[in-house]
Specification:
With 284 residues, the chain is of the alpha/beta class. The chain contains 9 helices and 13 strands. The strands form 3 sheets. It has a 7-stranded mixed sheet, with helices on both faces. Strands 1-2-3 form a 3-stranded antiparallel sheet.
Length: 284
């Protein structure tokens, strides 16, 4: 999956010393893993990371190529790069057994990384991507605009319908319907719908694959006793700092860890307080 970027910013190689050793290793890993070790590739990728380091606060254009498919992206932060790295290089959402989903719900779609991945993997599925954050939603729409089977919805998935505060975390934390303990956090009021309501709004009767990364709202989502009656398969993250012990213990007793071709994932989760889990209905 070669990756190209065109930041249009000159790179002074003396400035590369501003990047720490871990970041330089990460750039090299990108180059090695994506099959493009050319000087121009390293030059461009280094320019983007320098832009992040210098806090230039701009949108960077980036293209990815995989299996003959080209995607154009807008990114604004290291977190966006990490999302693409997790999904397309580390293949976080690679399912361990064959699936042929007709309907996919991407809850916490962020900039569209997982929705695009699912579109590549399951081109005949209808994919509904839910993202409540206003600015991130705009990037989601921009990054999926050319993909006909991805439908974007500016709303959060929770336990009940209504208008609620979305608490914005720091650079390494996602926005959440649940407060992480900040004394005076920034918030945005957003529309929240339950999973059954989202199904009604989209004309869906069965969710063949549900991806969730909703920063603690999974506690509310899983609280619905009928959850597994209309969700065939689910894959996502349980945020242990935002959920109670009952949910975490229950999930660990009934689900398998997300696997990579049947093996334990090699990568370390971005946050130590997250458990990656996958669920499948027992009658399948």
């Amino acid at each position: 999956m070669p990756l190209e970027c065109n930041p249009n910013v000159p790179v002074d190689y003396r400035a590369v010393s501003m990047l720490d050793a871990d970041t330089r290793r990460r750039i090299r890993r990108f180059s090695d893993a994506l099959g493009n070790g050319s000087p121009s590739y390293l030059f461009r990728l280094t320019a983007i990371f320098l832009g992040f380091r210098l806090d230039l606060h701009r949108t960077w254009n980036l293209k990815t190529h995989q299996g003959g498919i080209t995607h154009e992206w807008q990114i604004k932060s290291r977190k966006d790069i990490r999302a693409l790295e997790d999904v397309f290089i580390d293949r976080t959402y690679l399912w361990s057994h064959p699936l042929a989903p007709r309907t996919i719900f991407d809850c916490g779609a962020y900039i569209g990384d997982s929705a695009v991945y699912f579109s590549d993997q399951y081109p005949h599925a209808d994919i509904h991507a839910f993202e409540p954050h206003p600015e991130i939603y705009e990037m989601l729409v921009a990054n999926t605009r050319q993909i006909e089977n991805i439908h974007c919805h500016r709303m959060a998935i929770g336990g009940t319908d209504g208008i609620r505060a979305l608490f914005h975390g720091g650079s390494r934390l996602g926005s959440s319907l649940r407060q992480r303990g900040d004394a005076h956090p920034d918030t945005t009021m957003v529309r929240v719908v339950s999973l059954p309501t989202a199904m009604k709004l989209t004309g869906t009767t069965t969710i063949d694959l549900l991806k969730f990364d909703i920063e603690g709202a999974e506690q509310e989502m899983f609280a619905n006793p009928d959850f597994m009656n209309y969700v065939q398969n689910a894959i996502g993250e349980v945020h242990e700092d935002l959920t109670n012990a009952y949910l975490r213990t229950g999930l660990r007793g009934t689900v398998q860890r997300v696997s990579n071709n049947g093996q334990r994932p090699k990568r370390t989760p971005i946050h130590a307080d997250r458990s990656q889990v996958a669920l499948t209905r027992s009658d399948q």
